[in-house]
């Protein structure tokens, strides 16, 4: 049931839009403009016709798209049909004049059928297809659907396919399956897809469990989350945290012991775990290469230095602050925020300025600070059950930085629109994870009609690739525990 304030997906022809239902609010979809008042109290899936900028419900019996009509005589085949504008007796000017006079879409379709010279020469199937096509074009029919991963992705892709990184609904479903996301789980998500992966995980948890959505910058771009209009119970399980602060959260910096004497040599500068300068691969993905230089003055290789200093905090710090992960998320966040600002300007017709402070702003900021502290405590436990990553950048930096937050036997799933970055991650994860596999989804939609059931003629064949596996060890955590048990060096 649609209630006041609910999020609803409105579909008019090939146009899709997500909006909040408010009394007295207007919405525009394509060339249609109408009020949303009549949506309240109706069921999801209901169909409406736009009449004088108001939504008039269409009963299933009167639905012209599904009603059985007597199409009259029909030919055995379409061999003699030749497409031409001369076969329609009504001119374009007459059709426009009837629309201006306020004729209903169903009545206009009936007149087009009556004035079609070749209609009776079509087969029954061709006649039904002709009627459906004219209904989509001339009948102002709007369908109200509940938000789902599929239609929210479709809405985002229609605005800009780059927003979704070519993600499909079946691909997200496979990611949730591979990462073992279900009620009661602790899930950490990093995506550059407007939060659609985090929203899908929150929908799967159903208010039981916790999700931390890692983002770059102070605020996360969550158009996908807002489109679902989750209940307070589900929203309470979803929190965000800046990736720049993960290093201090996972393992706070330990104080450096003071030198015992002036004669003690200064400690050698530790070589960074990951070279902050990204190298561009042949596929165009940015990837930080391991440091190969020798630590100055010590004679130790970079691998020796890494084994001594590789704590979870240092791994996260090097892969989020200096590595490509922070830059990737920052770039994606900036692009998403700019895209959302452009959408807002296009819909409102003006740029929103900074509003003056309102009563309750301080309480809202205090609530956000408390939520940030609870999220920080959750991250410090480093006991997450699942990891989901969906990015158009090379995912290794994110993966290496977030894996210390997973418990043993945790599952992970990584999406990439191209396979080359995942093959690189596959090779680097050997010995740290098992059941490693790269999969590609194949989804084929079918038209189901009497005597003409067949696959759709036009489908999206690019599903991207998913790298999944199960964590069996955490080399950085093991090395840290070994150093703690060994005690301070004499």
Describe the structure.
This protein is α+β, with helices and mostly antiparallel strands. It is 35% helix and 20% strand. It is built from 16 helices and 18 strands. The chain has helices at 92-100, 105-114, 124-138, 149-159, 169-178, 196-205, 223-228, 232-235, 246-250, 302-309, 312-322, 324-348, 361-381, 396-402, 420-428, 475-486; strands spanning 7-12, 15-20, 26-29, 32-35, 47-51, 54-58, 141-145, 186-191, 210-215, 238-242, 274-280, 286-290, 384-390, 406-416, 433-439, 446-447, 454-455, 465-471. A seven-stranded mixed sheet has the order 10-9-8-13-14-18-15, sandwiched between helices. Strands 2-1-7-5-6 form a five-stranded antiparallel sheet, covered by helices on one side. A two-stranded antiparallel sheet has the order 3-4. Strand 11 and strand 12 form a beta hairpin. Helix 2 crosses helix 3 (124-138) and helix 11 crosses helix 12. The longest helix is centred in the C-terminal third of the chain and has 25 residues, at 324-348. The chain starts with 6 loop residues before the first strand and ends with a helix.
